[in-house]
Amino acid sequence: MEWVYFGTCIAILITMVLAVVRGLMGPTIFDRVLAVNMFGTKTVLFIAVMSFLSGRPDFLDLALAYALINFIGVFAVLLFFQSRGVRREAEAEREAGK
Amino acid sequence: MITIVFSLFLLTMLVIVAVAILRTDNLFTAVMLSGIFSLIMAANFFILDAADVALTEAVIGAGISTVLFLSALALTAEYDRSPPVGTWVPLLTSSALGGVIIFATFQAPRLGDPNAIVHKHVAPWYLERTPELIDVPNVVTAVLASFRGYDTLGEVFVVFIACIGVMSLLGRVRPRRDSIEEGEFEKRSDNLRHHLIPRVVGKMLVPFIVLFGLYVQFHGDFGPGGGFQAGALIAAGVILYALVEGGPRGRELVPEWFSSMLVALGALTYTAVGVVSMMRGGRFLDYSALSHDPIHGQHMGILIIEAGVGMTVAGVMITIFHAFSRRGIR
After folding, report:
1. Is the ipTM reported for this complex over the cut 0.85?
2. What are the pLDDT digits (tens) for B8-54?
3. Residue B166 to residues B13, B68, B213, Cα–Cα distance (Å)
4. Within a 10 A sphere around the Cβ of A62, how many other Cβ atoms?
5. Residue A43, domain extent
6. Which residues in chain A touch residue B36, judged by CB atoms under 8 angstroms apart?
7. Which residues have CB under 8 Å from B160's CB, separation 6+?
């Protein structure tokens, strides 16, 4: 059974590398946001599999915490773009009004 | 063996990401990459068996600091200005310092060496005596809260002072007149209230995050976790609510006076435990004096000081977030 976990770990690590490559290359901001999001998901999986590989499934707690927390970062990014859009719109309107 | 290979792999990625953070001009990219940096670091801590630290890194590094960085970014420019000319002095300084550190690692014991000083000093004593003296399954909690209670008290006060520092920068000053008025901005939605799916899903998650935070708080004796992690998780729940419903609603849920009171109250609780144990004839922070049964006293002391730590950490995170959101994510 152990080699299954081991193989899965390797596969997840490779996916992590792909996510990092996308995050580094970009080119747009949304590529990077997606890269972070995907990397977070892979970390959750990696920790879950590693906790079975090292024989301590009670560390799944950590994976749970990661899964919950990942969500908040995405919300902050969404909010950031929304409020930036609002501000730019308002600035453009004011420029036009002058 | 697997540990070392995985660890090396992750650390290589870590270096690449760290260099990329330094190289990029776009601050938003830097924030996203530092999120990845924290996640790699957390996975690495986990591989090295430091479950408590991995939990802290995940909650604070990947969760809350992304939110705080973005809040700060919303108040500043999007691009980093390149430094002025004459970069060879910093380059020389940092490479000299790096050289010294690399030279020092030649003297360091190998990873997992059972004869390393750190495994020979007090660690065996802690491992051996914890069941007898404190009787909690998670030795990390025993060391952090009881054996090394002074250090943790110091840490709590460091967090407390850091909060004072941040608040003296961000605190009561009214923001400069921004590009648009506050009322107008509210009208144009400073939150995700108008988006149905994030709103529903986000609000659904808040109670679970807070519940999980409480679980981490009170389960810290048995599994990974404790006051620091729990405080950050509960703060993350409040921050998520504020992100979904908007800053003003977040400040209604946990008012600013309450969150800043929490900061002081947590540190006070911790110190009070020490004073009470002194008044009952023990030494400062000697929890055995708290009850007739020393082990019961230890359990009680750890529970209370962990609660104090959690209060301070949660208070600090929420206070800083409120300060940013009051300055306007606009």
Report:
1. yes
2. 888 999 999 999 888 888 888 888 888 889 889 988 888 888 888 88
3. 32, 12, 24
4. 29
5. 2-97
6. 19-20, 23, 35-36, 39
7. B263, B264, B267, B312, B316
